[in-house]
Amino acid sequence: MTMNKVSSLFNTDYCIRIYLLGEFRITHMDGTDITPSSAKARCILAILALSENGEITRNRLTQLLWSRHAQEQARTSLRQSLSLLRRMLHFEENSFFTIDRNRVYLNKNSVWIDLHEVIHNSTELLGSTLFNSPSLSDLRTDTILQNLKIHDPAFDDWLQ
């Protein structure tokens, strides 16, 4: 299988790309890195990208990311992180990231997620001799979310 054939397996018609394999990062479709500087904001997006349906309750986010804080302080911190994500993702212009009173949503049909593409195309990739090349073998063995360390026991347990 040629590199062009492998590239054609991956849909590129998305406004943002979320990379979970190796180090977590987010890019615009033009390649510009838009990864939030805040570790908690990155964690929120990673949790949404890895969730089954792209949504999670605000309460669960506070439990995962601020488990050692008082409930009111955790809620305030969550609001600050969500506000940062709204600004960074141009909330008003995009429908892929939605926040309401109780939940946070990521429309996973509107964003490209590397792990989902690998899973979706695994049969063709695994049968390819190109998959044994060093760059793709790294993809198979890298851990997920290597650079997301927030030192919260609840998040660490979830990540395992």
Automatic annotation (TrEMBL):
GO MF terms on file?
DNA binding
Source lineage: unclassified sequences, metagenomes, ecological metagenomes
Q: Which InterPro entries match?
A: AfsR-DnrI-RedD_regulator, Sig_transdc_resp-reg_C-effctor, WH-like_DNA-bd_sf
One GO BP on record is: regulation of DNA-templated transcription
**What is the protein name for this chain?**
OmpR/PhoB-type domain-containing protein
